[in-house]
Amino acid sequence: MPLEAIGEGIIRGTIRFFTYLFIDIVLDILIRGPGYLIMKWVFRTYPDPDSFRVLIVGMLFWILIGIGGYSLNYHLSMVGGST
């Protein structure tokens, strides 16, 4: 029984660590980073990096990147021929 509790604690801590790491990397760096830089460039001020607007602008940035990549892929595949 004690070994199960120790193993369960180690597994739970490891999962919590990797979940925190994933959320920290994805949310803060990949979404809020571009949102902060875009808002800083557009408004010429220093926005709060933890604000909801920075999060929304970062998500819109990645949505536009995805749409642009899909559109580019679609149009380049039409030019490529009959393959």
What do these coordinates show?
The chain has 83 residues and is mostly helical. It has one domain (2-79). Helix content is 84%, strand content 0%. The chain has two helices and no strands. The protein has helices at 2-43, 52-79. Helix 1 (2-43) packs across helix 2. The protein is flat, with a radius of gyration of 21 Å. The termini are far apart. The model has no long low-confidence stretch (mean pLDDT 88).
Largest sheet: none
Portion in helices:
over 70%
Query: Can you count the beta strands?
Result: 0
Strand content: under 5%
Q: What would you call the structural class?
A: mainly alpha
Assembly state:
single chain
Shape: flat
- Strand and helix order: HH
How many separate structural domains? 1
Radius of gyration (CA) equals: 21 Å
Total helical elements: 2
Distance between the termini: 61 Å
